[in-house]
Amino acid sequence: MSDVDLLDKIPNNVDLKSDRKLKRALERWQPDFIDWWQQSGPAEYQDKDIYLRTAIDVDAEGWAQFGYTKMPDYRWGIFLATEVPGRVIPFGDQAGQPVYRDVPGEYRNVLRRIIVNQADTEPASVEQQRRLSATAPSLLDLRNLFQVNVEEGRHLWAMVYLLQRFFGKDGREEADELLRRRAGDADCPRILNAFNNPCPDWLSFFSFTMFMDRDGKFQLAALAESGFDPLARTCRFMLTEEAHHLSVGEVGMARIVRRSAELMAEHPGRDLRELGGIPLELIQKSINYWFSYSLDLFGGEISSNAADYFAAGLKGRFKEEQKETEHGALNQVKRIRVIEDGRLVDREVPLRNAMNECLRDCYIEDCERALRGWNRELEKAGAEVRLRLPERTFHRHLGEYGHAHFNPDGELISDIDFHRRQDEWFLTDADRRYLESIMKPCLEPGKIAGWIAPPVKGVDGKPFDFEYVRI
Ligand SMILES: [Fe+2]
Ligand SMILES: [Fe+2]
Predict the structure, then answer these.
(1) What is the pLDDT of residues 424-439, one digit of tens each?
(2) Which residue in 17, 217, 331, 403 has a CA-CA distance of 20 to 30 Å to 377?
(3) CATH 1.20.85.10 describes domain 16-470
């Protein structure tokens, strides 16, 4: 085991006991965090034993220790990936220089903004998912929801550590604000728009973990390249946990698709609503909504902020360090589609200004891979319809496409057209009522709700009928 202190009130591998001031500040924040968790974390089952994994170290044996825990007793800790000796800034103007072990004065505000924006999404998603525990389709799914939630809590800890350790009084204030904002609150909302959207049913939950957590993966990956080494090490470790969230989403959607395809094959021509299943059209609508919102999270297509972050060595490209490429990204261009005189045209943009789009490209590619998997489920069942991702211009709220309207094929359309066709593209009130009507809790070990297929594998090598939550 590496230098992990598990006996501390706050388990950590950052030698907290030798920094009394920081330790005190974090211990002062801890009860507020627990209050927030009680108010805004899962609405039910807080007093039940859940089969959860807890990180107790950052190595292969330590990062996933399974056992029964009540959520409020979960050991939220501060874990950074092991320091790489001699690591250098991998990209930007200072590429090749030793990494920053502390915050460079000139980048203080920028770094704080990057960290706060990332941090804010972690508690936000817990808040958005708060009510889902009432309608879980199986014990295993209920357990997975809680696993995702406690780990988002830990990610908040990871970011709050950075704020309190490196940003003094400002950092402590930001840490308090993170517990004050609430997803969807009219007066004090979360920072990024998409994290204020409701996530009322499990189709939304799986879409959310598929698309929104996957955005998180790419943001964390870009920050894991950072020349600010404590941020890079924090994000590297978060990525190991984040992988589970993405698979909950991707596999969850695949299971819904499998079940719908089964029902379609067994009852050709029938409306799946009569059979308690989820029609593919509703799945497609959920994809349209969450995928398009997740694209916004990458920021504008042409961005001087992104260029500055890259130049400063703060936020890199996906897998920058592994890539055999020119890490300065100078004297290169990227083609971006922009709107000019009411038409979409290609414009060449200096590569550094297109960093958000580079990251979005990698993300979209990963989403397309998942969609191919879902479509294989349909193919296997003999269905002819296929699911798809809308084009990147569709239903955007910021950047080059935020001021116009597009159809899912990416064609410019009028405002009137866009609003007229809402019901075709997004869940309607009737769709939501239907989803609500079929989402009843199914909590007997080994049982599964009728609208989703059981998973092929259980958790931690346990069977599907294992008692993942002791109700
Ligand atoms: Fe997270
Ligand atoms: Fe996550």
Answers:
(1) 999 999 999 999 999 9
(2) 217
(3) no
